[in-house]
Amino acid sequence: MSEDYYLSIRELFSENILRNLILFFMLFIFTIAQDWNNILLLLFPLIIFSFSIIFEIINDNKWRIQLKDNLIIYNPLGSEKTHANRFFFSALLLLILVFWIGAESYYHPQLIDNFRVYFMIIYIFIYTFTFFWIFIDIWNYCHVIVNLKNKNSNLEEQGTKFKKFTHLLNVKYIKLISLLSLIVFLILNILNLLFTFLTFNSDIPGLEFNLPGTG
Q1: Which of 111, 173, 183, 214 sits at 20 to 30 Å (Cα–Cα) from 167?
Q2: How far is 57 from 80, CA to CA, in rounded Å?
Q3: What total number of domains does the chain contain?
């Protein structure tokens, strides 16, 4: 009779995860110390960083549910380590941008109005590009591994044909999904450009946020 197995906190959080948590939240604390009264901009890096931690946990503990001599290994999420690293990089980049514009609002408040529009365009572009980047790679790295080493020759021959067949299917769907992802990514950023310029240059209401140095 099988028994349930639960991971301890120590097993769940590896050294890499703890390092990323410490690095991210140190920068996060430095950022909120600028006296932000609206956390809207800070939500974007927090969301991306949460995905980074989830993928890192999956990557570090995936081996626990795999058998030693698995004939078929399925990776539905692709390379979790790659996704975790890219999410973490984007989260840090967004947080650095927020920290930078917060500091600029203190030291050069007269210049904020000149490049706040461009900041928002770049900020949303990085956020949306991160998910586009991940979705593309999920399909590139998502695959079925048929392990036929040390098996009989008939299985090896059938396995070779199966690999060729699944490869052709992957190429077909990867092209389609990549195209759809690119279209969605472009539409979102075009809409972002339009709404940003309309919000800052007309009376159209938008999401308001006050920078620390401008009140």
Answers
A1: 183
A2: 9
A3: 1
